[in-house]
Amino acid sequence: MRHPRPPRPPSPERSAELRRRFAEEARSERPDLATLCLLVGAEADGTLDEAGLDAAQVELDRLAGQLPFRPGTPRAWAVALRDLLGERYGFHGVAADYQRLESSLLHEVLRRRRGLPILLSVVWLEVARRAGAPVYGVALPGHFVVGLGTESGQESGSLSGSLEERVLVDPFDGGRVLSGQDAEVLVAGATGAELRASMLEPAAPLDVVARVLNNIRAWAARRPEQSAVGLWAIDLALLLPAHAARLRYERARLLVQRGEFAAGAGELEAYAEVVGAVDQAVAEEVRGEARAARAMLN
Q1: CA dist., res. 135 & res. 254, Å (int)
Q2: What is the pLDDT of residues 190-208, one digit of tens each?
Q3: Single pTM value for the model
Q4: In 3D, which of 218, 220, 288, 215 has the Cα closest to residue 258?
Q5: 85: Cβ–Cβ under 8 A, 6 or more apart, which residues?
């Protein structure tokens, strides 16, 4: 089966501007989830211009305006969102969506009404937030969902208390309201582990964006011909205020994979200097990779 080609990237000048704005938003006092996800989309898709960015925000506003005025309980919010987004507009996901880069791009998810669980959850989060709902993302292992209601169940660390005081919904399944058992099945299916109260903690916007970029990197890693996509996803992740140091190692290895041996070797050597402060054995292994990369230049 042929899969669609990924979108055409923006020009280098446009990319530099997008990255500047992404870094600025990520370091702001209250990072805006929709803005960050749309900037990721613009880095992927050179056709997404300023008018397109604005249109996506307007669409989120329009959808929010169609929700009932403050429906009441968390369950009432959940049902209202399901009825609007899942049933009326048909937002949902299917297994084939995991094979498409567009499933990780907010503007495409708004257009196609299809996407990965985390991007569909972003639609739920942003529409609900605009309408005044008590809403937050929940990064269950392997499957992102949305929570509505109080977060106070976290204070006691009680799983039963957490689930009683909130409602979980699964946007990938059209906004289906999840029982505690449903959530347990989702986690067990993804990891084989039991659901714990700590898994229900609200996900901060930057954590959501980091997970979106991780999904894009994973998509590209399975497709060596799409290494440019993996590279810009790493570059954006490195602009987040908190990121794993190992991302720099991943970037260096990707440069070598792309045939940029001198640049990759330089970044491997820089990473070795950093990691050498805590693990000399690993640092020497990385230096060996750098020497091997430089040898490819001969």
Answers
A1: 37
A2: 778 788 888 889 999 999 9
A3: 0.91
A4: 220
A5: 63, 91, 123, 124, 127, 171, 174, 175
